[in-house]
């Protein structure tokens, strides 16, 4: 498929436009809500903060942290998804569908139950362990199944693992009823009511993972065109894969630790990025990062309005956006890939 | 799984073989009864099996309340729902000729639970619980129809069907959350209790709500065992044998929808029973539906009964939803099926 943007100049321009859109989404996220705040006041609050002004207080203590959470979590998930799709050459690969998000959630819930952990900086390590465990399980299954586990079946295996992890999480939650109410909202995915301080505890990992993702753009492009090709071009496949996997675990794990399991961002946005910028991951990854942030900011704005005075869990909004898209991929791209896979297998 | 001949065995002693399968059914029934009695014994206080049997036949005693009003309805409800889900799975596996086919994968469970939550949350208790199975069946029907339509592309490939099912399940759970968010706090609370597994406060009324549906559609399924035998041979063979393939398939899918929907309405979205039950039953008695259906029902009943009893007794006084245990067994089972069956 020909990407929408052909030349490097137009891709750069597109990225700049996406960044502008992102800035607009941030502004909208800060300005819109149960109390609408004028844009001038918003700017004023950021430039000259006045604690006596309620609108300023709302902006600085709730709206801004919320926007920052949505931005970082959205771009982390989208970058993780883009890398997974490149690594596995599977269009449905994403932290949500492969059970990595739910593995991280299970690990966090278990850690809350068993260990005397309170701060997010400790919980984030539990999330990493869970995400890594789930990733290893899926990867192990893929190698165990050999040729028998085609990409499409790997998705099914991932969904079964996800079902298992969520059922176990539910069981653990029953064991620890006191913390239930808070954890439940966190599980469905939410960026509301968080303090910026907690974000700083996971931000370093997001930055490291994101930086690695950006640097891996070129090797991932080669790897995504086939392992033989990458080997032939002299790439150290093992090293690239290991670093990319570690970056996926960091990005997905810290996103879950910050905001709970939010599905479909990591699935949808890399596709959109490839539609715009082609298959060169040097472009796909930054595009995914910006687009993922825009999607989550948008979803978070949408989540505020339908139910007054409460709001919808963010995971519900992204789910409603993501499911039609998932079905679109399942109906189209996949069968061609699967046919290709089968021919490859019969040839080899 | 070793290939089995659906119609007749090449075994020279046909009657002996049938005796053996009937014997297996009887043993399953006995094990189920034993599990029922044991389940009624276990709990925060131990009641003797003798006492349980006395209560079952209607003798009044000090422990009759605990056994007859608290424990037995719950056990019987789990038993019935397990049988219903497993029967639905057995019917679907024969119709779609796919080992992965089950009410959860085909969206029936998700659709039924979204509809049940909608019914509880939006009606706000104005309508009687007796209508809950109907609402759940409609939900199951709509969602499984949607999945079938979306998976259609020059015919329905089994793997695409399952894949679309995965996506739509995510969608139904989002819709469920949405319905909860839009309903008033009291009815949302009721719906939430239902979601976490309503076997908790089971009563004989719930048992009586489920029983007629299961009896009706279970009998319909069993009466159609011959048709199912023909269907699992494949469309061409079935047409050749004179079956009205499309019409019968539609009718039998409706039976599966009714069985799964009514079970989910009463016990919540317990996963994987409809997948594992028929597989174990097939191992035990082969794939002739005349025996396979009762065996599936018995195995499914036993599985859910054990899962619920384990959830109720292992972590006392806490009550772990039965779905946790069925998923713990079911998910690895599902993955093993994926790995082992090259052609699905």
UniProtKB/TrEMBL annotation, chain A:
Q: Which InterPro entries match?
A: ABC_BtuC-like, ABC_transptr_permease_BtuC
Superkingdom of the source species: Bacteria
Name its cellular compartments: Cell membrane
CDD domains hit by this protein? TM_ABC_iron-siderophores_like (cd06550)
Q: Name one GO cellular component term.
A: plasma membrane
Q: Work out whether the entry's keyword set contains Signal.
A: yes
Q: Which GO terms describe its biological process?
A: siderophore-iron import into cell
Instruction: Cite the entry's keywords alphabetically.
Output: Cell membrane, Membrane, Signal, Transmembrane, Transmembrane helix, Transport
Q: How does it sit in the membrane?
A: Multi-pass membrane protein
Q: State the similarity comment.
A: Belongs to the binding-protein-dependent transport system permease family. FecCD subfamily.
The name on file for this protein is: Iron-siderophore ABC transporter permease
What is the scientific name of the source organism?
A: Paenibacillus campinasensis
UniProtKB/TrEMBL annotation, chain B:
Keyword terms of this UniProt record: Cell membrane, Membrane, Transmembrane, Transmembrane helix, Transport
Q: Which domain of life is it from?
A: Bacteria
Q: Does the keyword Transmembrane helix apply?
A: yes
Query: Where is the protein found, in the record's own terms?
Result: Cell membrane
Give the membrane topology, semicolon-separated if more than one. Answer: Multi-pass membrane protein
Segments passing through the bilayer: 49-68, 75-96, 108-127, 134-151, 163-186, 250-277, 289-308, 320-339
**Chief localization class?**
membrane
Q: State a single Gene Ontology molecular function.
A: transmembrane transporter activity
Per the record, what is one GO cellular component? Answer: plasma membrane
NAD in keyword set: no
According to its UniProt entry, one GO biological process term is:
siderophore-iron import into cell
Q: What family is reported?
A: Belongs to the binding-protein-dependent transport system permease family. FecCD subfamily.
Put simply, this protein is called Iron ABC transporter permease
> Which species expresses this protein natively?
Paenibacillus campinasensis
Starting at the broadest rank, the lineage of the source organism is:
Bacteria, Bacillati, Bacillota, Bacilli, Bacillales
């Amino acid at each position: 498929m020909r990407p929408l943007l052909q030349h490097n100049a137009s891709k750069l321009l597109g990225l700049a436009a996406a960044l502008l859109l992102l800035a607009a989404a941030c502004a909208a996220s800060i300005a819109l809500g149960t109390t609408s705040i004028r844009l001038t006041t918003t700017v004023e609050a950021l430039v000259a903060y006045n604690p006596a002004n309620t609108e300023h207080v709302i902006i600085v203590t709730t709206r801004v942290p919320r926007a920052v959470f949505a931005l970082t979590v959205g771009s982390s998930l989208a970058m993780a998804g883009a890398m997974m799709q490149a690594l596995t050459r599977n269009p449905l690969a994403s932290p949500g569908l492969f059970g990595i998000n739910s593995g991280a959630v299970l690990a966090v819930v278990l850690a809350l139950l068993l260990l005397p952990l309170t701060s997010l900086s400790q919980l984030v390590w539990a999330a990493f362990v869970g995400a890594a465990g789930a990733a290893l399980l899926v990867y192990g299954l893929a190698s165990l199944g050999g040729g028998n586990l085609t990409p499409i079946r790997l998705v099914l295996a991932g969904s079964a693992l996800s079902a298992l992890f969520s059922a176990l999480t539910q069981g653990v939650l029953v064991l620890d009823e006191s913390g239930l109410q808070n954890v439940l909202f966190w599980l469905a995915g939410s960026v509301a009511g968080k303090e910026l301080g907690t974000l700083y505890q996971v931000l370093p990992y997001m930055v490291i993972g994101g930086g690695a993702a950006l640097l891996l753009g070129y090797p991932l492009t080669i790897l995504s065109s086939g392992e033989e090709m990458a080997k032939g071009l002299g790439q150290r496949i093992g090293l690239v894969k290991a670093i990319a996997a570690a970056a996926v675990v960091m990005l997905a794990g810290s996103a879950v630790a910050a905001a709970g399991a939010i599905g479909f961002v990591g699935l949808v946005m890399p596709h959109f990025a490839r539609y715009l910028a082609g298959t060169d991951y040097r472009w796909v990854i930054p595009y995914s990062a910006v687009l993922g942030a825009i999607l989550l900011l948008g979803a978070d704005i949408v989540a505020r309005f339908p139910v007054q005075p409460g709001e919808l869990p963010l995971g519900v909004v992204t789910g409603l956006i993501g499911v039609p898209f998932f079905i679109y991929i399942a109906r189209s791209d996949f069968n061609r890939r699967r046919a290709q896979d089968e021919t490859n297998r019969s040839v080899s | 799984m070793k290939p089995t001949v659906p119609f007749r065995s090449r075994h020279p002693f046909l009657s002996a073989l049938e005796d053996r399968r009937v014997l297996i059914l009887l043993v399953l029934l006995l094990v189920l009864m034993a599990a029922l009695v044991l389940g009624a014994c276990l709990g925060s206080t131990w009641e003797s099996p003798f006492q349980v049997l006395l209560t079952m036949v209607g003798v009044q005693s000090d422990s009759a309340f605990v056994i007859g009003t608290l424990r037995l309805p719950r056990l019987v409800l789990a038993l019935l729902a397990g049988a219903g889900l497993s029967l639905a799975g057995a019917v679907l596996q024969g119709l779609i000729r796919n080992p992965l086919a089950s009410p959860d994968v085909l969206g029936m469970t998700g659709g039924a639970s979204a509809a049940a939550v909608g019914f509880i949350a939006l009606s706000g208790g104005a309508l009687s619980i007796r209508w809950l199975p109907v609402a759940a069946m409609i939900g199951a029907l709509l969602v499984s129809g949607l999945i079938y339509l979306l998976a259609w592309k020059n015919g329905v490939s089994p793997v695409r069907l399952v894949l679309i099912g995965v996506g739509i399940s995510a969608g139904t759970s989002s819709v469920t959350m949405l319905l909860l968010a839009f309903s008033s706090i009291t009815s949302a609370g009721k719906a939430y209790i239902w979601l976490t597994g309503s076997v908790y406060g089971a009563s004989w009324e719930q048992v009586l709500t489920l029983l007629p549906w299961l009896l009706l559609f279970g009998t319909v399924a069993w009466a159609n065992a011959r048709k199912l035998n023909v269907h699992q041979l494949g469309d061409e063979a079935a047409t050749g044998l004179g079956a009205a393939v499309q019409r019968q398939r539609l009718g039998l899918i409706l039976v599966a929808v009714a069985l799964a929907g009514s079970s989910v309405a009463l016990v919540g979205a317990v996963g994987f029973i409809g997948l594992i039950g028929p597989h174990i039953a097939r191992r035990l008695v082969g794939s002739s539906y005349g025996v396979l259906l009762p065996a599936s029902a018995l195995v499914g009943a036993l599985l859910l009964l054990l899962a619920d009893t384990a959830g109720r007794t292992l972590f006392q006084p806490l009550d772990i939803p039965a779905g946790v245990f069925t998923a713990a067994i079911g998910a690895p089972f599902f993955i093993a099926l994926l790995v082992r069956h090259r052609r699905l």
